[in-house]
């Protein structure tokens, strides 16, 4: 296995410069579990599990890694994929989960269950990715809206319902690809409830029955927007982010009739690739 050959670089036996003869395997294996788990956290779960064959020292260490990064393609059967994630999260129910990144194909009820589990365990980085646009993406549970430990949120093919309350004091990065919102209020509450938000990427997100899509943030530094969908026509996008340094706007399908950008004073770079559906009185303007 190519991964094991690469990882084995840590274990190549070679004499120390002082000639003591101590090998790298002993030095690495002698590290405390907590440090080894931090090293393994940088790898995909598929590769982490492979380290269990290196020696007895590593056999069960993968169970204590505070993160999961797994694709359904990593396992032959989808039911095996679901079962593995369930068992991994169940090995140590008290373990804080720093990262959860799953890529799935079928169904979403189990994804909702996993999200609820890791939110309780103070997840910092949450990535939920559906492979195919045609499937019904996961309905993201309301528990995410009040996950105080969350730092990054990446969703692809998902639905965000209207929250009653949003409090995300540590969230800095949001990336949404083909995500559905019940209405604009759900999105506005997500942004306003993230006081430290620095980066926002929106790709082909959709709403029902809105005319104006607002992005308002005092902390936002980077905004990327690519093709917004709305059931209604002539969508207006209004951006109010006084600290914004980088702005990328792209819309080639003419859903947007105008962009309103307030306060351009902090902008360093702007990338625009837009085809406007213009009529009388419609224009790009800044305030």
Could you walk me through the main structural features you see in this protein, from its secondary elements to its overall organization?
- With 287 residues, the protein is α/β, with parallel strands linked by helices.
- The protein has two domains: 1-65, no CATH class; 66-286.
- The chain is 21% helix and 29% strand.
- Strand 6, helix 7 and strand 7 form a beta-alpha-beta unit.
- Helix 5 (78-91) packs parallel to helix 6.
- It is elongated.
Question: What can be said about this structure in brief?
Answer:
By secondary structure, this protein is of the alpha/beta class. It has helices at residues 2-7, 24-29, 33-40, 45-50, 78-91, 109-120, 184-192; strands at 67-71, 99-104, 125-130, 138-140, 152-160, 173-181, 199-203, 206-207, 212-216, 222-226, 229-230, 235-240, 246-251, 256-262, 269-274, 285-286. Helix 5 runs parallel beside helix 6 (109-120).
- SSE order in H/E notation? HHHHEHEHEEEEHEEEEEEEEEE
Give the overall silhouette: elongated
| Uncertain parts | 10-19
Q: Alpha-carbon distance between the termini? A: 58 Å
The radius of gyration is 23 Å
Main sheet specs = 10 strands, parallel
The share of residues in extended strands comes to: 25-35%
- Structural class by secondary-structure content: alpha/beta
User: What's the average pLDDT?
Assistant: 81
| Quaternary organisation | single chain
Number of helices: 7
**How many β-strand stretches?**
16
- What is the share of helical residues? 10-25%
For the record, the count of structural domains works out to 2
């Amino acid at each position: 296995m190519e991964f094991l050959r690469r990882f084995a670089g840590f274990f190549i036996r070679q004499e120390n410069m002082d000639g003591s003869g101590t090998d790298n395997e002993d030095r690495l294996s002698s590290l405390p579990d907590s440090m080894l788990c931090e090293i393994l956290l940088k790898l995909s779960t598929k590769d982490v599990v492979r380290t269990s064959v290196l020696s007895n020292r590593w056999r069960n260490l993968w169970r204590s890694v505070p993160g999961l990064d797994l694709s359904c393609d990593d396992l032959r059967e989808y039911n095996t994929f679901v079962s593995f994630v369930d068992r991994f999260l169940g090995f140590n129910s008290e373990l804080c989960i720093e990262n959860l990144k799953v890529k799935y194909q079928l169904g979403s009820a189990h994804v909702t269950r996993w999200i609820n589990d890791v939110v309780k365990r103070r997840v910092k980085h949450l990535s939920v990715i559906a492979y195919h646009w045609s499937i019904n993406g996961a309905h993201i549970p309301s528990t995410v809206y009040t996950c105080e430990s969350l730092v990054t949120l990446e969703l692809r093919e998902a639905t965000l319902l209207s929250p009653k309350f949003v409090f995300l004091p540590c969230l800095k990065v949001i990336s949404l690809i083909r995500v559905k919102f019940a209405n604009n209020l759900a999105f506005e509450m997500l942004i306003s409830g993230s006081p430290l938000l620095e980066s926002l990427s929106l790709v082909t997100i959709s709403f029902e029955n809105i005319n104006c899509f607002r992005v308002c943030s005092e902390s936002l530094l980077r905004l990327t927007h690519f093709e917004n969908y709305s059931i209604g026509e002539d969508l207006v996008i209004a951006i109010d982010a006084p600290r914004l340094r980088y702005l990328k706007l792209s819309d080639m399908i003419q859903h947007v009739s105008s962009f309103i950008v307030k306060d351009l004073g902090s902008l360093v770079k702007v990338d625009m690739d837009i085809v406007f559906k213009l009529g009388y009185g419609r224009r790009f303007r800044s305030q």
